[in-house]
Amino acid sequence: MITISYILFAICSLIIIIMYSIGEFHMLQLNGYKTPEHSWWMKKNLKRYALPTIVYVTQWILFAVMLVSDVFVALIGPLICTLIPMFGYSIAIHRKKYKKPLVYTARVKRMMVTFFILIAIFFALSILLSKGEHTIYLERISNEFKNEFNYSDSYSKVVWFRNPLSYILIATALYLTPILVPLSNLINKPVEKAVQNWYINDAKKILASCPDLHKVGITGSYGKTSMKFYLSELLSSQYETLKTPESFNTPMGVTITIRRDLKPTHQYFICEMGARRVHEIKELCGIANPHDGIITSVGPQHLETFGSIENVVNTKFELADSISALGKVYLNGDNELIRKKAPDYPNAITYGLQEGNDWRATDVSVSDRGTEFTVTAPDGKSCRYSTKLLGEHNVQNLLGAIAYAADTGIPMEKLVLPVKRIAAVPHRLQLLDKGNGVTFIDDAYNSNPSGCRAALAVLGLFDACRILVTPGMVELGAKQEELNYEFGQEASKACDYIVLVGKKQTEPIYNGIKDSGYDMSKVYVADSLNDALAKVNAYTTDKKKIVLLENDLPDNY
């Protein structure tokens, strides 16, 4: 009876540890396996660990009570009062629907092995300690239990459970899971670094075996993915072109693309480069070794990890610093921060809508059907283009792509049809007609202040019932509240209805809307995206509904 209790406690705890750890591995993966970022995320989400902490404290109290309680409480109390709540909590985590579920990569599997080795140490110590016995005098046991266990009155004491430390060690392993998961990541760091270096060096060898391959790096606080897609479309009209897919803009993402997709026939390799910390662009340039570079923008993005806007600027220009004198750096001259740095680079070529840029777009005409504009090259030659893309801000990225493609030798007039064929990048002002009088502008990917303003401008193009659905902007550091407040004020000028997703997250936006004098009866704060969309469907209007989906926070928010 006593041994079964201990085994049952250990088995149930192990099952909960497995379920609980999967949720923590998922969050660590979403945080990019970056232990500092994951630690910051844990601090920001302390309420996630409130129930486990309460239950753990309760368990310690129960172990103390067990020393003076009867056999029934000693055997069943810890199981009912501590394991059952944690089992329910772990089930709730597993049943939650995630937009991006845990991917069991080789790295995750290696971390899991390390994690369970750590857990095994706790269980091994528990088993060793369980050899000790705790006893109580028979007089402390009720007659009911005497009869049940068939003890005679001659016995003065009876063994009733194993050493309580054995239970405590197992319980500690369970409740330290959120710490042991990132600890396993730290322990594995030398191994992971060695594995990554092997793959990176292999990718470098592959690039070195393609001497005729021309490599172009693209970075920016925003716009880099769109620029990558646009440039790929234009270059592909004449050259065999490879681009990093989706958001493969990390060292391993670039490495995977090279090792998996690069062929000897490719003439151009377009490499998107993302960064959340200083020197990460430099690291990517060390892998791809780009001949040319494009910097689309610099702004207050990922300030929580960069620390300052100066660090953002310096990191983005690590791409320009890596380009040799024989290469070219294409810079968005309309961006104030980029424009200030441009004179430091003799090989810089600027593009934009403002006067003074080497490549310039003028006569921009924007409607809900698309955009038209004229491009003038540095030599004075010009050409008129039209695109299905919405918004003036898209002209900047198209202009940069046209400038680069034309400098590779493709005549400007031959780029007219490729520009016309370009479709919106998924989740970046992508127009989706769902029927039933509702059209969505899907701008759900990684919002930023500039992008939000551009999206609201696009929403304003439509003669319709204009509805904004947003959870707000994140990763803006100390400026996050201020910039979301400004977003709310700007939204109040452009929208007929506003639906905010998440009360706490959107509070600055709500305050901005309220302080602008907006009719707050037209503002709804939803608990989830599904709740928000249900509210959108409930709105009654004579006009067609145009719904801007601005940002979609990942599962770790």
Polypeptide structure, described:
This protein has 557 residues and is α/β, with parallel strands linked by helices. The chain folds into three domains: 186 residues, no CATH class; 212 residues, UDP-N-acetylmuramoyl-L-alanine:D-glutamate ligase, CATH 3.40.1190; 121 residues, Protein-Tyrosine Phosphatase, Chain A. The protein has a nine-stranded mixed β-sheet with strand order 4-5-3-6-7-8-9-10-11, sandwiched between helices. A six-stranded mixed β-sheet has the order 12-13-17-14-15-16, sandwiched between helices. A hairpin with a 5-residue loop joins strand 10 and strand 11. Helix 1 packs parallel to helix 4, helix 3 packs antiparallel against helix 4 and helix 10 packs across helix 17. It is globular. The protein starts with a helix and ends in a 7-residue tail after the last strand. About 5% of the residues have low confidence.
| Helical content class | 40-55%
Enter the CATH topology name of the largest domain. UDP-N-acetylmuramoyl-L-alanine:D-glutamate ligase
| Count of distinct structural domains | 3
Overall 3D geometry? globular
Cα separation of the termini: 46 Å
**Strands ordered across the widest β-sheet:** 4-5-3-6-7-8-9-10-11
Give the helix/strand class: alpha/beta
Mean pLDDT score, rounded?
A: 85
Contiguous low-pLDDT stretches (5 residues minimum) are: 70-74, 133-142, 151-162
Total number of beta strands: 17
Topology:
Elements: H1 2-30, H2 35-44, H3 50-66, H4 71-95, H5 106-129, E1 133-137, H6 143-149, E2 157-162, H7 164-175, H8 177-187, H9 189-208, E3 214-219, H10 224-235, E4 241-243, H11 251-261, E5 268-272, H12 280-288, E6 292-295, H13 303-306, H14 309-316, H15 318-322, E7 329-332, H16 336-341, E8 348-352, E9 359-367, E10 370-376, E11 382-387, H17 393-407, H18 416-421, E12 430-435, E13 438-443, H19 449-459, E14 465-470, H20 480-494, E15 497-501, H21 507-515, E16 523-526, H22 529-538, E17 545-550
Helix pairs in contact: 1-4, 1-7, 1-8, 3-4, 3-7, 5-7, 5-8, 9-11, 10-17, 19-20, 20-21
